[in-house]
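User: For a benchmark we're assembling, each entry needs the component sequences followed by a predicted structure for the full assembly. Here are entry 17's components. Please fill in the structure.
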Amino acid sequence: MDPLSTPARLRRRATWLLGQSSNQGHRLISERMHTAGVANRSYYSLLAALSEVGATSQADLGRRVGLDRSDVTAVVTDLEAKGYLERTADPADRRRNLVRITVEGEKFLVLLDAEVGAAQEDLLSPLSPQEREQLIGMLVRIVEHHTGLRLSDTTER
Amino acid sequence: MDPLSTPARLRRRATWLLGQSSNQGHRLISERMHTAGVANRSYYSLLAALSEVGATSQADLGRRVGLDRSDVTAVVTDLEAKGYLERTADPADRRRNLVRITVEGEKFLVLLDAEVGAAQEDLLSPLSPQEREQLIGMLVRIVEHHTGLRLSDTTER
DNA sequence: AACGAAACGTTGGTGAGACCAACGATAACC
DNA sequence: GGTTATCGTTGGTCTCACCAACGTTTCGTT
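Assistant: Structure for entry 17:
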């Protein structure tokens, strides 16, 4: 019996293919995040945002990475316990917690970054370098169109 | 204050872009499924598989669309109540339920198909027709590579 | 023919992720 | 100065994917 093929109506639908590809990508990332010692990819997102933007509030972090404030609380608590960030009351605005990444946090981020990069390599392995650029370019346009986000490298520093 | 940009480390990652695009696609599909009167896209998948393959068992359906047997039970029960399929004991194998799509089911599938097609159009609107073909082709290769599925149009009827 | 292994549909449950509501505390607005 | 808004936190809900177990039925091997 043949591998029980997916309905033809689905096989070439962009939404279905994007879902499948996205699942594969997330599976690859999750595996590597777990072996690196964190539960999911929000840990990576938060550390990345923190390293990029410097000390900031939890609410600001959440907005940047698309996480709810309540979920930010949990991840930040965990990252603080692991010593990867510091959480102090903001003297300038006592509603806020000032969160800043630690030296160990930066080191850990470098590690996670390598894992995430390797996962990209795995996922896109069937594509040539030019194709990968094409794919990413088209996805950027789709995401920009539907979210209003500006993702282009206006200043890549 | 600028729109609080996503961390640069994420913005051009294929996994992140695929996740965002996939979410947009699923959002568009979900909206249309809801207004069409079904809860989620498994209704569409199951009807599509059923129309394509003819009468078959629930377990077979589940394997084709990637649904757990328990979840198939729920959706099939609902679709039967709506009159879109019939579920009878298989005389040749009394463990099985023989499920077959009804005339109303076929009509409903045509409707859902149009909705799903329109969602593709929405999602891919920033891309030219050639680009859409390129995108789909690359995604097909990624999915085939990571799942072992064969999605190519070996026989497009 | 018999017996263990496997597949079927169903029920009930688990875990993760995204989201929402409300709270007390604090700041911003007019 | 009084209302409105934002902050972090707690404690939910909902959906999805998945797993476990069950009684029933069939298959495979001897």
